[in-house]
Design brief:
2 copies of one chain form a homodimer.
Chain A lengths: L3 E3 L12 H17 L7 E4 L1 H10 L5 H16 L2 E2 L5 E2 L1 E7 L9 E5 L5 H9 L2 H18 L5 H12 L12 H19 L7 H15 L3 H10 L7 E7 L10 E6 L11 E6 L3 H6 L5 E2 L1 H6 L1 H18 L3 E8 L2 E9 L4 H10 L10 H7 L2 H8 L2 E2 L6 E4 L1 E4 L2 E7 L2 H9 L4 E5 L7 H6 L2 E4 L7 H9 L3 E3 L5 E2 L3 E4 L2 E4 L3 E5 L4 E4 L4 E2 L5 H14 L4 E5 L3 H9 L5 E5 L1 H5 L4 H9 L4 H24 L4 E5 L12 H10 L4 H13 L11 H6 L1 H20 L5 E6 L5 H19 L7 E8 L2 H5 L1 H5 L4 E4 L1 H9 L3 H7 L1 H6 L16 H15 L4 E4 L7 H11 L3 E4 L4 H13 L4
Parallel strand pairs in A: 3-4, 16-17, 17-18, 18-19, 26-27, 26-33, 27-28, 28-29, 29-30, 30-31, 31-32, 32-33
Antiparallel strand pairs in A: 1-2, 2-7, 5-6, 5-7, 8-9, 8-11, 9-10, 11-12, 13-25, 14-24, 15-19, 16-23, 20-21, 21-22, 23-24
Helix pairs in contact in A: 4-5, 5-7, 6-7, 13-14, 13-15, 13-19, 14-19, 15-36, 19-36, 20-23, 22-23, 23-27, 24-25, 27-28, 34-35, 35-36
Chain lengths: ~900, ~900
């Protein structure tokens, strides 16, 4: 198999399909040159096979011969020879992996210049300054990138000449000065490497190619691949291309352009252009660029040609393209193209527009597949409208959207400032139910501890409020906080981006959320694709949340956490009374009060979700979560003393305290220790359902028993639940629909799913807990403290609390679904953990497990609808 | 299939094999009658099939006819008829399930008596008093058991007659008085049931049979089956047998006897005998019984016959038998037999003796199979020599053996009392490393919280010191403790039995441990059986423990917990210095000190285990376990204030604190955060090994990495370990044997065992943690608080921390072993959790998983050796 292919090689199939072999850059160039017939400077691509061979065993046998042959062919095409002292052919050398990858060698330009060919260039261009400037750039680029010489040495020499730092700028040195600089550079090369700067063009070329190969294993490239989960064995291709010069004269120029506006999606090309410049000048941002329209004014013919090229590219790629082009003395050359990146708004608009394109069009399925979760997040939440001037640090991106406010450090301050109409960011080590009111008052939440399923993260996501959590480097002090070497005083403005985890100083301008009308259209298409295959529900605990969820398209509630109702301000004292009471009338009285309150909550939820299924999880957390902290009470006891009630609370808190609450007395275990608690909850729920029936509603209730580990445990709890249901509905003429099921959230429940299914109408995977127990990772402890180290060291490929761990936790999920359905064919199975809103996990749940529904926070529902459709399509954007 | 079989029925195979059908009692009677030809009063057995039919659908069709036929046959054999007013046949009716089961109906005697046959009995025996006493007993027994009348009503009527309570005694009522009492009883029956006392013998018989059937579902019987894991569907058989009377005259008598001494195992029959008495008189203990030798004196012929029967029984059952017999007017009748229960000492002696029996013998394999873990525990630990007078309550039996001492409530008191030469029991809510010295000073340990793998339990077992833990009902007060309604003052004597969990008041006499010489013999046989199949190692953390373990027959160390070395008094400050130090010279200095200390510890262990494998687990617990409690420090801060070092410790304790330490920063995670810690430990270990090599020893070291969840994590840790090993051994001419492996203690590790095996020379299952994570049961929280409720409610069949949960945790274990060995054939696999010493779990590990070794606490090693042999034999005692 050949190791080098020219751009116009007849592969027999579209070069784009050969990305793995030719790299992205090489494949796109070949596509333009050989398929589209665009004017592309000729050249060839050295394959990734060659790179792999090189990395495994050095310069491949036969590569030199092939290289010489292709250079000769290029020379023939261009009617110039490399190194020709009269009219030299110059080439660029670029790396190009299958997947675009920063951290690798980028580009060497002007290769082929040497002490004699520089004279030929001078002669042919009639521009000595241009020739020596090109030579200078080449020597320094080559010295730095290929020969590994510290770039600052070249910069210093250049500054010695111009008195200014860096390259480019207005004070242009004269040609002799540049020639002298080239000599200086060459001396530098010899001093640093012990050998003279290579003069033979083929030697230069081989050096550059080897440098590209080697750069595959540069530390930054490896780190990038680790982070992005790119296979280390792919290797990179190398593209060698004849140089054209946009900086030759004023009939020349260079630009980058998108075939449509990548920010808005409008159908107008968008880009930057410079007259008499090379590509790097546009990218470097040193000179002020012109809009594309400048080409129309200056080079109307070229503009026409360019828009024709754009139309051709879009029709061919069936998408918006990102291009680089150069005009050399009035001739247009396309240097690169690829499908372009775009904003969320543009992604939505283009996807919908392109289904209606004249001449070519994409299907609605393709449109759905092209939009990503990030795109949807962008249009639903506020974003930074500008890059922050000072990024202090970074935490975990816990709840998408950006927020700005004064830093405050307690819920009370947040409430007070909120009442004054001020915007605040609540900064806490971690949040607890006591912080709820402060979180409501704040624009966003920032914590130093805890992971993506910490209290702060879960609550903020539930409200669609921006949050950054687990910012471990942030240290809260007496007067503010320290982060990234800066001290931020209480009351100073900070800005956070819950989509990226960034924490910035000052007031960063925000762009408000602006869902375009195409969002609705696209989600409608998505719904049609997934209808009857994978439903999307929401996790919601109140009528208001349920209504929000329904407005976002939720098809029911997959998880209603009844404990959140217990934590509301006026109810906590009742819950505590219930805990303090021994069995008997006092307990019963407290339970009655709670029942009344829960009944109202349930009714509001059933109203909002009328006709749709509502899964209510019976009380799950350990009782000590409802009691004050032992430490606080003991401190008070040791200092000012406790009153009688506090003494009782301390006693109860001590009695119920646990070493490992996550593995403690919670879920159905609590139900078994305090059976009247579950009875009360089912009473409240069924009374709410009865009221809805009486009002003409259609409540569909699913009672979910948490944390079961054995069939008998589930059967016992189910028997109580059914007895209460029977009691509460015995006088109803029209009975509400009720099912009873369980969560699968312990490894044992997953293994015993066949047995559990005998007593369950449905399963709902609690993948948060299942992940915690399968890994032995407490989300409260490990995720914040260890996860980043584990990801950086590559010990884990992904945060398993963010993307389901397919080989570990996923095996248990798959196995449980199989066993459950084998025991009870048609068993309804869903998932209500955090993974229910993660596209990669949704794909796994649908394709590998065949779940019936996913459930996520209300604001995540649109993303889940999209991801569910993509899972059904078997594709991702 | 027939529903009734007479004792002499020709089954075609030994009736003993038909226990399931005939019940234990029926099968043994049939065996004696039909196979051994002993004189057994004739009778028949109604099968368990009949019982199951009855419980499912009432009195079985055809049973009445069969019953009548068998009664007629019995009458023919006995030449008497039931209800005959001249010479009536009386029968007994007894229940008899496959497995002997308290809580079911026991026995009705004298059935067949009625108002006319009592006269026949009078006539035939010439003893009116005897006849009416028999009739009285029958009516009250029948009234109580079959008709469900409150027994106190009969007692009251009896007291009205005798002026004394209860039955029996010296003041014997006259015959007319008894006849009058019978009338009174019959009136009572009619008043209570509304129908007269049944006079027809067949009606009486059917009533008694139905009562036996029904008693299968009596609450006590159900509870017993739940506790003992007996199938509820087995049902019971009913035995109907002609009565013989040991209370007929002075040529009559009755007794119970063991064919050997069940306490010592001596080859002399042992039992109790009464002249002119019925069986219940012997059992009731109201009259002073005579030893068996009394028979030799009174009835030398009978004695000869009896010893002949004993020899026959032993030869037939090939074991010691427990018998009941009656002598009626000079004729010996055998009423019952079964293989008898025995003490640990007797079990050992008999098992060994019976391999050398003249005439018949058992194989060594059988001898090994007949001894149980409890037997061995009994001879290795002190036992209560008497039943305690006042049992206050019960906790979990955490470490076998009994202990007596004054109740003390702090380690300091225990140390002080110990120094004064006093015996104490240390009573704590729970123990921590701070209590170690106090635990050493105490005779035994009693805690109110925590389960079988709590600190107190694990440490006490490690030392072979009696412990009862998780005595939840016990409440420690200011001046002592409350339990079972009694208040025990500090300093009062209490006694605990760590084999049963009993807590008793006062000084119960103790029998010292007395391993008979047969123990060694038997364990030697056990070793030969399991040799090369299942090795037994010990968990030991010090040289002394290792030496103990070896003396008990351990073949290596399966778990050396290096953290225990960190907790020793003088080392804790160094560990704390290491934690407080940032990276750098301070940390290094502290690590150096620890290295030196650990090196010495390791050397002592390697000396004790020279030539045998020693598995050293690198540091496992979270660092906050080495820091003082935050609560204590905060209290001090709020009251008297903290010094500089305490402030630092408080800061560190806060920084390292965790919500769920069990799922936190421990095991290899700690190694990854503090890699120099593991490096130091491996250095110390390899230096110790090098010293041993230099001294001519043969150290065999296995470095074990705890809590891994991914292959990469293990590979990374392994790479450090190997680098350190290479560094430390590079100058050695003879290298110590070293392997590197991992624990499998998270569900994910079990699932990923194939991948982990690529980087592991061995696996060791940590089934404690695996059980905790698979169930989501924290041993610190759930086991003490919830487990007893779960076992009582039948939600779990067994405590999964005591007996491996075969279907849940066991599936993960099996799967991990399969995957591990598939990836690395010949992978060595063991288990070092608490289950390593549990016979049922050992059987599972050997037979279902095929482990190479088990590891348990040193004092448990003999039990594990026995259980391992039994697992190999495929049998259990």
């Amino acid at each position: 198999m050949a190791l080098i292919f020219s751009f116009d090689h007849a592969h027999g199939r579209p070069p784009l399909e050969l990305r793995r072999l030719l790299g992205g850059k090489g494949a796109n160039l070949a596509e333009m040159a050989s398929v589209l017939g665009l004017s592309v400077p000729p050249g060839f691509t050295i394959t990734t096979d060659a790179c792999r061979d090189y990395l495994a065993g050095g310069w491949p046998e036969g590569l030199s011969a092939e290289l010489t042959r292709h250079v000769r062919r290029l020379e023939k095409t261009m009617s110039r020879r490399v190194g020709d002292p009269d009219d030299p052919l110059l080439v660029s050398v670029r790396s190009g992996a299958e997947i675009s990858m920063p951290g690798m060698m980028d580009t060497i330009l002007n290769l082929g210049l040497n002490d004699s060919s520089v004279k030929g260039l001078t002669e042919r261009t009639g521009n000595e300054r241009f020739a020596y400037e090109s030579y200078r750039r080449f020597v320094s680029m080559y010295g730095r990138i290929v020969l590994g010489i510290d770039g600052r040495l070249f910069d210093e020499a250049f500054e010695g000449l111009t008195g200014r730092d860096g390259e480019g700028g207005h004070a242009e040195p004269s040609a002799p000065a540049l020639a002298q600089l080239v000599e200086q550079y060459q001396e530098l090369v010899e001093a640093e490497t012990g050998t003279p700067f290579p003069q033979a063009p083929l030697e230069q070329l081989r050096g550059a190619i080897e440098a590209v190969f080697r750069s595959w294993n540069a530390p930054r490239a490896i780190a990038y691949r680790e982070r992005e989960h790119i296979d280390h064995h792919l290797g990179t291709a190398v593209t060698v291309q004849a140089m054209v010069f946009g900086n030759r004269d004023n009939r020349s120029g260079t630009g980058v352009a998108f075939t449509r506006d990548p920010a808005t999606g409008e159908k107008t090309p968008y880009g930057d252009f410079l007259v008499n410049a090379q590509g790097e000048d546009v990218v470097a941002g040193i000179r002020n660029t012109l809009p594309l329209s400048a080409i129309r004014e200056r080079f109307p013919e070229i503009y026409k040609e360019l828009t024709g090229v754009f139309a051709k590219l879009e029709a061919h790629y069936r998408d918006m393209c990102d291009t680089e082009f150069t005009i050399e003395q009035g001739k247009l050359w396309m240097l690169q193209t690829r499908v372009g990146k775009r904003s969320g708004k543009a992604a939505l608009k283009m996807a919908v527009d392109m289904t209606r394109q004249r001449g070519w069009r994409i299907s609605r399925e393709e449109a759905v597949a092209r939009v990503s979760a990030e795109h949807i997040d962008q249009v639903l939440h506020p974003q930074f409208a500008e890059r922050p001037a000072t990024v202090l640090g970074r935490g975990l991106a816990a709840s998408p959207g950006a927020a700005v406010g004064k830093a405050v450090f307690s819920a009370d301050e947040a409430i007070a400032a909120g009442a004054r109409g001020e915007r605040v960011i609540l900064v806490r080590n971690e949040t607890s139910p006591d912080d709820i009111a402060g979180m409501i008052a704040a624009q966003g939440v920032l914590t130093t501890r805890g992971g993506l399923v910490s209290h702060a993260a879960v609550v903020a996501r539930g409200w669609g409020k921006p949050a950054v959590v687990g910012a471990e480097q942030l240290r809260i002090t007496e007067s503010g906080f320290l982060l990234g070497g800066s001290a931020v005083a209480a009351g100073e403005y900070i800005s956070i981006d819950g989509s990226t985890g960034e924490i910035a100083l000052g007031e960063v301008a925000l762009a408000p959320p602006s869902p375009p009308m195409e969002l609705k259209v696209l989600l409608g298409w998505a719904d049609r694709i997934r209808k009857g295959k994978l439903a999307v529900r929401a996790n919601a605990d109140t009528g208001a949340d349920a209504a929000t969820a329904r407005s976002f398209g939720a098809e029911g509630i997959g998880l209603c956490r009844t404990e959140h109702m217990f934590l509301e301000g006026d109810r906590l004292p009742i819950v505590r009374r219930m805990i303090l009471a021994a069995d008997g009338p006092e307990e019963q009285a407290a339970l009655e009060e709670l029942r009344e309150a829960q009944r109202e909550d349930f009714e509001a939820i059933l109203v909002a979700m009328d006709g749709l299924p509502v899964t209510v999880r019976l009380l799950d957390p350990p009782l000590h979560e409802f009691l004050p902290s032992i430490r606080d009470l003991e401190l008070k006891e040791a200092t000012v003393g406790l009153d009688e009630q506090e003494k009782q609370l301390l006693g109860a808190a001590r009695a119920w305290q646990e070493m490992n609450p996550m593995l403690g007395l919670r879920g159905v275990r609590l139900g078994i220790i305090k059976p009247r608690l579950y009875e009360m909850q089912v009473q409240a729920l069924m009374q709410a359902a009865a009221a809805r029936v009486a009002a003409g509603g259609h409540p569909k209730v699913e009672v979910m028993i948490p944390l079961t580990v054995t069939r008998r445990e589930l059967a016992l709890a189910r028997s109580w639940v059914e007895a209460t249901i029977a009691e509460e509905t015995k006088d109803l003429r029209r009975k509400p629909q009720v099912q009873v099921g369980t969560m699968i959230e312990t490894p044992r429940a997953a293994l015993q799913a066949g047995e559990l299914a005998e007593a369950a109408d449905f399963f709902s995977f609690g993948t948060n807990d299942l992940t915690q127990m399968t890994f032995g990772f407490s989300r409260d402890d490990v995720e914040g403290r260890l996860m980043s180290a584990y990801l950086q060291l590559g010990l884990l490929e992904r945060n398993p609390f963010e993307n389901l761990d397919e080989v570990g936790v996923g095996e248990l999920v798959r196995l449980a679904a199989q066993r459950g359905r084998a025991a009870r064919p048609g068993l309804k199975i869903g998932i209500c953990g955090e993974h229910g809103g993660d596209p990669a996990s949704i794909r796994f749940f649908y394709r590998e497990v065949g779940l019936d529904y996913v459930s996520c926070s209300p604001f995540r529902v649109p993303v889940a609808r999209l991801a569910a459709a993509q899972a059904v399509l078997g594709e991702t954007a």
